[in-house]
Amino acid sequence: MKTTKAGLQFLAYASIIIGFVNFYWFIIESLVQGGDALNGKIQNGLYFFGMHGTYTEVSKNTWEWSHFHALSVIFTMAMAALSLVYFVGKFLPIVISIRYGKMEKFPLEFKLFAIFGILMNYGFVLVGIIWIAPIQGYIGVYSTIIVTVIAMINTYMLLVRNRMRW
């Protein structure tokens, strides 16, 4: 039973890491190449990447790779979301115990998960600064500011407010 639990936990951690690494890899790849295949098109035997109404011609192999990579992002992010649901179910009793004073310290895996969450917050801030704000204009700037504030609040709540329990 313990090995099954450990294996499930390992798969959940791996799914989260692979999902987010794949997502950011896809974002960076799309920015560098000028778009992706899901937003692109095939016209008269030519392959185009699309990004916000602008199309860039690419080779068939590059287009097919981008198409496969985009679909893999959908799958890996779905797996990461299921893994996050697993961890929410696992950590919710711990959070409740801490909230009501029944537990004095956070378990190590909870600390690692929380730090990973904060890093993801700042990753979203970085995506907002590099990609969303320049393309979306004021809306992108506002959404990036909101995500930055959320990341700062999460950091404060975890590292400063709960420092005695670490």
Task: Describe what this molecule looks like in 3D.
75% of the residues lie in helices and 11% in strands. With 166 residues, the chain is mostly helical. The protein has two domains: 1-102; 104-166. The radius of gyration is 20 Å and the shape is flat.
| Percent of residues in β-strands | 5-15%
The sequence of SSEs as H and E is HEEEHHH
**Beta-strand segment tally:** 3
The major pleated sheet works out as:
3 strands, antiparallel
Radius of gyration: 20 Å
What is the overall silhouette? flat
Instruction: Classify the secondary structure makeup into a structural class.
Output: mainly alpha
| Ends distance | 29 Å
Given the structure, what is the number of helices?
4
Estimate the mean pLDDT confidence: 76
Percent helix, as a range, is over 70%
Strand order of the largest sheet: 1-2-3
- Enumerate the spans where pLDDT stays under 50 for 5 or more consecutive residues: none
User: How many domains make up the coordinates?
Assistant: 2
